[in-house]
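Progress against Task 2.4 (sequence-to-structure conversion) is shown through the following example record, which the project officer requested during the mid-term review.
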Amino acid sequence: MQGGRPIIGTCPAKFICRSSGPYGASPRSGRILSPMGIKSERTAPRVLIVEDDRDIAELVAAYLGREGLSAVIVGSAEEAIIECAARPPELLLLDLGLPGADGLDLLRKFRESSTAPVIIVSARESDEDKIAGLGLGADDFVSKPFSPKVLAARAKAQLRRAAYGAGASASGARLIFGPYVLDFEGKLLERGGSRVPLSRREFELLAFLASNEGRTFGPEELYRAVWGLEHGDLSTVAVHVQRVRRKIEDEGARPRWLVTIPGAGYRFKREDR
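Structure tokens generated for the chain above:
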């Protein structure tokens, strides 16, 4: 510590700098160096940090390491695509203002092949940027400046949700509504034998509401239950509800199953009940 602030320099023991740019050369192996410099096989959840500010990236990685997470840093969307293809991460921390391709472009590409949770960490604070990011499949949006300790806690919460899923309590069950079959164990939604493409978070939201059919949940309750967080941008709930509706409702303005209860929240309701 220097002047009450963490000293940011070389890579902390529990994370890897992979960029060939300002972050230095890649390590010889995908193993983690312990604080004593002894190599050990990686067992910690792997987080990919896409951030072109070296100081911010290293500080975040250090806090992730304290929480038992393994972090890899890249400084551009192009490097991130290469890294994801080589070793897909369990969690993506994504800055939007990147050199070269934009962070939103990377998010769109990432969602084509991965349902891993994504936290956007950006200085952009407009509602349009937040809605765009959440609409493309981000699970959370953290504005800069931020607390790295809180961000590490949010990262662990997202990984916990990804590991267990909102439909864990209904494992093995299926729910039929209209032409749809919601498979809790398989974590998928089918219509006429064909899979309806849902992101991991979209499925968790639908599964939670369907598991609690007839009950109304406000945005705060859904944020705690599905996202696993106590505080954050509640607009992500409305964004994800709209995304699910676009995929299951014939008329989004007049939903049949995922309905809004004015002043209260959202409820799942089957027409035959």
